[in-house]
Each structure stands twice: as structure tokens, then as C-alpha cells.
Amino acid sequence: MKYKFISDSHIHSKNSFDGKDSVIILAERAYNLGLYSITITDHCECHEYIDHDYHGDITHSVADVVKARALYNNRVRIYTGIELGQPTQNILAADNALAITEFDFVLGSLHNLKNEKDFYFLEYTPENYHELLTRYFNELYELAEMNCFDSLAHLTYPLRYIAANEDIQLDMKLYEDQIDAILMTLVKNNKALEVNTSGLRQLIGKTLPDENIVKRFRELGGKYITVGSDAHRWGDVGSGIEEGFNMLLKCGYTHFTVYEKREPMQLPIF
């Protein structure tokens, strides 16, 4: 690999409702690829906490990471993580999830608006997309103000799916003020911004967020950047991370961030 410290800080195991493979299989893939570290960030969708046994899922995820660590003995570093989805929609659930263990890393994410389905399931038209995106960035600002996470995951998440509608002529300038408010809040709270490389495997063909927003984050004083594939199967572990590093260099970053025991560790890209 081109870079020494390739790290994938957003991976889902079979302990996520949409994950396919065990932590051991994911770790084996990372080891074979020569990755420096991985972080297992299984889902906890806070708004569904009562209806789904996320406590059990995360407990199993943490136990699986402990087993994988013992097996790989630092040949690849394996960190415990969690992806808190919609914590603003159920703060008590978020608190309960974070009390399960001493996590290394916490992602904050927004997969659906209040009282709406996941953006994956919505239909997008030229008539409704602007309202949905405006609401998304408003609610994401609420999330950014919380101090329960370390890195904000896949900013611009809905664009994964809006990109599939060729009738929508998207003008991101309409949302610049909202995005700036989110980024400035992350800077103020000393939080990281995630570069999510899943978009490189999808129709949108870009990281989430893209280069323009990452560059803007740096202009506003953003220090911490995490990079994750958002893999849900072994074959996607590490996917797009090198491309993400290339983009970080173009934006002026010389380091990226991995978290251990909720503390940021900055590693050189080169």
C-alpha cells in the first residue's frame, strides 16, 4: 500500500442489522491488506432502541473485538467503536449505549429525520429534495452540538440516494450556510469530521462529504479527520481509504486521526 498507517475507522460486523461478517473475518481481511488499524462501529439506532435489542448487539460486538484483539495481538490494531444513529431523537438511549463499555471511538450519525424512514427508503423528486435536505442539515446541526460522539459520520449522507435521480439538479450552494454552521460547531467542540469512502463504491462516486466540504472544514480550523469505508462485508474493508488519503493531502492535511479510549491520535498520512 502507498501509505504506512492505513486505518479504517468505520466498519460494521454481523452484530449490525445490515452487517454480513464476523469481526474475526473483518480483522483477517484487514491483516491481509496490511492495514494499520480498524475500528468496529456497529449500529445503535437510538430512535429504535426500545424496539430492537441494540444493547445486546453492541455487547456482542465489543466481546468479538476483545477476542479478535487476542488473536491478532497487535498485528493489526482493532478498536471498539459504536455508530450512534439519531442520538438527538433519544438521548437516554444514547447514554445507555455509551455506558455498555469504555469505547475507543464513537461516531455520530443521522440516517433518518424525526418520524421519517431512513433516507435509503425515501423517494426523491425535484419537488421534495430541497425540503428534505434543509431538514437534514438542520437536524445534523443539532447532532453536531452534542458532545456524545468523537467524529461526525458521512455528512451529506442523503446524497448517496439523491444521486440516483437524474431529474434533480442539485445546487449545494443552497446549503453552504447550514454546512458552515455544522463545521464550525465541530471545530468549537474539538470534534472530528469523517471522510466516508462508501460513496466511491456507489453511484454518487464521491466521498461523503466531498473534497469541497473537507477543504472548508480545514479553512474553518478543523483539526481532526477520521477516514472510514463504512464496510458491511469483508470485501469492502479498507475500500477507498487510500483515495481518501489522497484527497486529504489535496485539502492540505498532513495527518489523520484514530481514536483510542476516546482520545484522538494523529497519525501522519505519509
Structure description:
It is built from eight helices and nine strands. With 270 residues, the chain is an alpha/beta fold. The protein has one domain (7-268): Metal-dependent hydrolases (TIM Barrel), CATH 3.20.20. A hairpin with a 2-residue loop joins strand 8 (255-260) and strand 9 (263-268). Helix 4 runs parallel beside helix 6.
Q: How would you briefly describe this protein structure?
A:
The chain has 270 residues and is of the alpha/beta class.
What is the topology?
Blueprint (H helix, E strand, L loop, with lengths): L6 E5 L11 H11 L3 E9 L8 H19 L4 E9 L5 H8 L6 E5 L19 H16 L6 E2 L6 H4 L13 H13 L3 E5 L14 H9 L5 E4 L12 H10 L4 E6 L2 E6 L2
Parallel strand pairs: 1-2, 2-3, 3-4, 4-5, 5-6, 6-7
Antiparallel strand pairs: 8-9
Helix pairs in contact: 1-2, 4-6
Strand order of the largest sheet: 1-2-3-4-5-6-7
- What's the CATH class label? Alpha Beta
What is the terminal separation in angstroms? 11 Å
Mean pLDDT: 97
Radius of gyration computed on alpha carbons: 17 Å
Percentage beta strand: 15-25%
Write the CATH architecture name: Alpha-Beta Barrel
Shape: globular
Q: How would you sum up the major sheet?
A: 7 strands, parallel
Low-confidence stretches: none
Query: Would you report the number of β strands?
Result: 9
Number of domains: 1
- In percent, how helical is the residue content? 25-40%
Q: How many helices does DSSP assign?
A: 8
> Which topology does CATH recognise?
TIM Barrel
Superfamily (CATH H level) name: Metal-dependent hydrolases
| Structural class assignment | alpha/beta
What is the H/E order? EHEHEHEHEHHEHEHEE
